[in-house]
Design brief:
It is a single chain. This protein is of the alpha/beta class. The chain contains 13 helices and eight strands. The chain has helices at 21-28, 36-48, 55-74, 91-100, 120-132, 150-165, 169-172, 186-190, 195-210, 234-243, 261-264, 266-277, 292-307; strands spanning 5-11, 78-84, 105-110, 140-143, 175-182, 215-220, 248-253, 281-284. Strand 3 (105-110), helix 5 and strand 4 (140-143) form a beta-alpha-beta unit. Helix 4 packs across helix 5 and helix 10 (234-243) packs parallel to helix 12 (266-277). Bound molecules: ligand FEC. Ligand FEC binds at residues 12, 14, 25, 28-29, 42, 53, 55, 112, 116, 118-119, 182, 184-185, 223-225, 255-256, 260-262.
Amino acid sequence: RGDLVALLVMAYGTPQSLDEVEPYYTHIRHGRPPTPELLQELIDRYKAIGGKSPLHEITEEQARRVATTVAGRLGRPVEPFVGYLHIAPFIADAVERMAAARPRDAVGLVLAPQYSAASVALYQQAAREALERHPEAPAVHFIDHFHNHPGFVAALARRVESTLAGLPADRREGAVVIFTAHSIPQPVVDRGDPYPRHVEETAAKVAAAAGVGRWRVAYQSAGRTADPWLGPDVTDVIRQLGREGARAVVACPVGFVADHLEVLYDLDIEARQVAEEAGLAFARTPSLNADADFIEVLADLVLDRLGATR
Ligand code: FEC
């Protein structure tokens, strides 16, 4: 065990049952409990996708498989420690378990491709605060983003190609690909956040790799807060495309790496309905999840970061 590599894998987290939705939502809202109406709306969205988001299981599988792949490449033991931003086991819990395992090296990976002060920075801050309580832990080498990793771009491009190919021929001609990412509050963007640039870069690279001519970038799932949020919103873009005579939209969520509420509800149910109302066929690219090509990307990032520590 003296040679152990620790992977601190950080993800958003999801309630494991409907009872956990309230504390989860309160945590997302920085400790302010939601109104009964907002809470009910969120519970209804979980119910609409079958009562539960698969994010927890997918995150665990991604972490396990990256660890196995990296261990195979390095010939060293590698153990994943998964921590969530908004629900137990929290990032601090994962750091505590990691420190107890006495690894020699540690890499921190947030499962979000584009860097933002409103996302990746919060995960890393949670990890750094917990690490201060564990001086025995080795320095954690963080991966900040992978929005332009060639393997990540290629994996998304393959999914765009196969989804376009699956459209009926008469719809494919007039199809537009909409690359989506989670919106963030506009004040964060105004402070010079790299996030919109990262999202645009991912989209442009994937479009080029897939040979897509007609594409847009849109943001989705804006929070229910008083702030303005980064746009344009995906539903507005879909309506606009309908007015412009497009025949189909293919949503490609480049800001997420797994199936979860924001993909299964906000795109598959909400955006699909808006598209159908606008007379457009709707399709969504399959998520990366724990697919082999994406696990290779994550393993590559980890190995690269470990190389930098030697
Ligand atoms: O499947 C699941 O149960 C979890 C789905 C989920 C993912 C996710 C990813 C991101 N979020 C980001 C930013 C914000 C900001 C706020 C915010 C609010 C919510 C709410 C739910 C929720 N988010 Fe989320 N997000 C997911 C779920 N998110 C539920 C609360 C209800 C609502 O407003 O819709 C607003 C916080 C506030 O009130 O101040 C900001 C970003 C990502 C993508 C990067 C990442 O994965 O970290 C950015 C998955």
